[in-house]
Amino acid sequence: MPPSFIHQGMVKLVTEYPELWPELLRRCLGIELPDDVEVLQGPETVRQLHAADHTADGTMVVKRVCDGAPVEALVNEIQCKRDDDKWWTWPLHLAGIRARLKCPTTLVVLTPYQSTARWAARPIDVGRGRMTLRPLVIGPAQIPCTMDLDDARQHPALATMAVMVHGRRPGSRSLSKIALRAVHERLEEQREGSTLLLDLITASVGAKALEEMEEEMEIGTNVSFTKIGRQKFAEGHALGRKEGREKGREEGREKGREEGRRDARRQAILLVLQSRGLVITQAQRRRLERCPDDEQLESWLRQALVVERTGDLFGTPRRSRSGHRTRSPSPARASRARSR
């Protein structure tokens, strides 16, 4: 089964923003790192002779600035559901990184679901109840559900993660608007990595809530989502004004807004695929540009962060082993088939 959007998105977020882990430790677990250390990405793979490699979702190494000696290592795991096999592989990750770096090593589990947090927090008996591994767990109860604008500006990755965890829950609208405003400002400044934050936020907010926020921000605060998105929204509104004069101002304006939103989502899908190094064919591009279905576009945007090839996203035929052409089901069609 391929990784879920929330898992892949969180892995991508903490990989692109490694400074997020120390902030999560401080805010969620009350762990303050010393001032005279630096936090760097560590090895993610534990290698064994005559056995398959074991890969963690990420590791962080805390080193002294003065001599570069490792003080502590953190094995980071993002878990979206219960998986009892992890009770056997997590100790392996921990022991492998500890032996490789020769420093104390701690397991930190990050999950967006409270039930998974309770499961992950259970101690792991390594031997006779006297050797016990107790993971540090960061769940939705620890991840902030409110942030002010200054805080979101200073910690945009944390604001993005907060929306990924809480964005579809009641009362999260203020958090989502603040995170979007902070990311928009970064886009205006052409800050690296801002497009990723935007994609994760917009994919984590319900379609109806996102449309309402888009409209409110455009009217009240003049905030739009990307430079491409702003151009598309402007084109949509221009079309709306023109058709409004011909067929009725309100009807034309609404049509312009809808088409502008669709174009913005299409551009977001292309940006995600481009950032992941996936090539889109002309036929696939035409299919994307001609799609009028808001739900389909939103589904493609979510799946663009997960699929391994663009053919899996758009249902492009692929060659079977026998040489016959088979068609990969679209994500939306596959989801409906599983529901039956």
Give a structural overview.
By secondary structure, the chain is of the alpha+beta class. It has 15 helices and 11 strands. The chain folds into 2 domains: 5-138; 226-340, no CATH class. The chain is 54% helix and 14% strand. Strand 5, helix 3 (86-101) and strand 6 form a beta-alpha-beta unit. The model is unreliable at 46-53, 219-237 and 318-340 (pLDDT under 50).
Short description:
The protein has 340 residues and is of the alpha+beta class.
Domains (count): 2
Which oligomerization state do the chains in this entry correspond to?
single chain
Poorly predicted runs of 5 or more residues: 46-53, 219-237, 318-340
- Approximately what portion of the residues adopt beta-strand conformation? 5-15%
Biggest sheet strand line-up: 1-4-5-6-9
What characteristics describe this protein?
alpha+beta, two-stranded antiparallel sheet, 340 residues, five-stranded mixed β-sheet, 15 helices, globular
Secondary structure layout:
Elements: H1 5-16, H2 20-29, E1 37-41, E2 45-46, E3 54-55, E4 58-64, E5 70-78, H3 86-101, E6 105-110, H4 114-120, E7 124-127, E8 131-133, E9 136-138, H5 149-154, H6 156-166, H7 173-188, H8 194-203, H9 207-221, H10 227-247, H11 249-275, H12 282-290, H13 294-303, H14 310-314, E10 317-319, E11 325-327, H15 331-339
Parallel strand pairs: 5-6, 6-9
Antiparallel strand pairs: 1-4, 2-3, 4-5, 7-8, 10-11
